[in-house]
Amino acid sequence: MIFYVEDDNSIREIVLYTLHSMGFEAQGFADGHSFLQALETQRPSLIMLDVMLPDIDGVELLKTIKRQARTSDLPVIMATARDAEIEKIQALDLGADDYLSKPFSMMEMVARVKAVLRRYKQEEPKQLSAGDLSIDETSHVVKAKGQVVELTYKEYELLLLLLKHQGRVYSREQILDLIWGHDYDGENRTVDVHIRTLRAKLGDCANLIKTVRGVGYKLEV
Hints:
Residues 1-117 form the Response regulatory domain. By secondary structure, the protein is α/β, with parallel strands linked by helices. It contains 8 helices and 12 strands. The protein has helices at residues 9-21, 32-41, 58-67, 85-93, 106-121, 153-164, 172-180, 189-202, and strands at residues 2-5, 26-29, 46-50, 76-81, 98-102, 127-130, 133-136, 141-144, 147-149, 170-171, 209-212, 216-219. The strands form 3 sheets. The protein has a 5-stranded parallel sheet, with helices on both faces. A 4-stranded antiparallel sheet has the order 6-7-8-9, covered by helices on one side. Strands 10-12-11 form a 3-stranded antiparallel sheet. It is elongated and about 55 Å long. The mean pLDDT is 88.
């Protein structure tokens, strides 16, 4: 179970929706008091805290978590304003395991959640594949017919999303939300451009990425 504390309803809902769609159990809280009440009776596997909250700010909540023996070993990810360097340093000094700079993309959030959980659970490296295409999630190495393919960060996120959910069709709007974040104000043509460059780099494996006319894209053998 992941606990997520965020007072902005729209952000909280899309984060919880994304976590659920990726197979995680997650529960959201709009303020620090409701979060602390739940923490008294439940032990989550990970906590995500926004710094700016209406009652108790995220840094104070982090101090409370790390001060109590029962919760001090729980992994915590902080969400901070993009330029709030002091908040990030303070959070890490207090024992936070990672931080997200707002606004963040949903895929970046999921990647960081998995990375923190992996460090705590010491999971085995995970290999994903479809035909002659493969991704090693631990090393972020992509191979097409045994050859390493160099991708940009967004190209990698996009390919990982499609490969993890083979056969599922994603609209351009869904891809923008998951990869670029809900605050992205660019055109959905960005998705088409990244698909085109991704196909060019994948060579013979490019045909795994299918265009569903009028809808979006999917990856399928």
